[in-house]
Amino acid sequence: MNVRRLIPTAALSCAALLGLTALTACGSGSAAADRKGGRLDVVASFYPLQFLTEQIGGDHVSVTGLTKPGVEPHDLEISAKQTAKLGDADAVVYLKGLQPAVDAAVKQAEVKTKIDASTLTSMEKHGNEVGGHAAAHDHAAGEEDDHAGHGHSHSEGGDDPHIWLDPVKYAEVAKGVGAALAKADPAHAADYTKNTDALVAKLGGLDKEYAAALKNTKAKVFITTHAAFGYLAERYGLTEEAINGLDPDSEPSPARIKDLQKMAKADGVTTVFYETLVSDKTAKTLASDASLKTDVLDPLEGITDKSKGTDYFSVMRSNLTALTTALGTK
Description:
Blueprint: H1 31-34, E1 40-44, H2 47-57, E2 61-65, H3 80-88, E3 91-94, H4 100-108, E4 113-116, E5 129-131, H5 141-148, H6 167-184, H7 189-214, E6 221-224, H8 230-235, E7 239-242, H9 254-267, E8 271-274, H10 281-289, E9 293-296, H11 312-327
Helix pairs in contact: 2-6, 2-7, 6-7, 7-11
């Protein structure tokens, strides 16, 4: 990923940084007084956070997404119109470290409530190979370090931002967003709490579906285009081997491709997964060279006509079907 153009400074950022607390308050006046049409005006940085905010906010929020369908979130550039929209909002929900342009704009915007999803759950550093079974591979430490170097650090600490693909972590984010909206709009706190509980329950059900389906698969290793599924792999005892690391636009080294071909044969890998918003060329080349199948494993960074589902839950269940088909059952 290239270094993105930073937004010119338009306003002073909030002075208060409350440690791991998701809320930062600045400016004057209440959110309720600034609301459009009686609803809390919320800007969400990309689809998973937009979906979550809409589910929790219900009729009490008006949610605008910064990342349009079909746009790769990592590559987002913010327009002047979007910057102005952000500055007028009552609240913003974003994931620090995923979209540099959004981070810069949020820092400069005088938004009363800033909700950073990365502070609402634990974040981890992931390289090209992630999962509980990674130690079973005979990769030399130096070689593994070289692989990890192909990944892109999405934030200062190099944390993997793809927390929404783990239903348990996504539920933790939901709880934090729900609490933040209740604080910003106390008149409707009870509804935010009720909606949060309902969403968390649905995510708990999804977690159980994944755990049951992936418990006794023949294979435990899967290959993806970029390392979006590290948290999911760790949650359900799988190992993700990524071609491109955390940056979907990076190019893998010839050594990485060769290593993946050997690993696929040794670990019984049947399928190379690609995704809807990024080119499938490298995945299909690797699959062809290693006589493997290809299928879609959607990182759910946006919903388009090509998505195998219409929302977070339907696409996650489509992903589960793809995984269980590729890994096989005992």
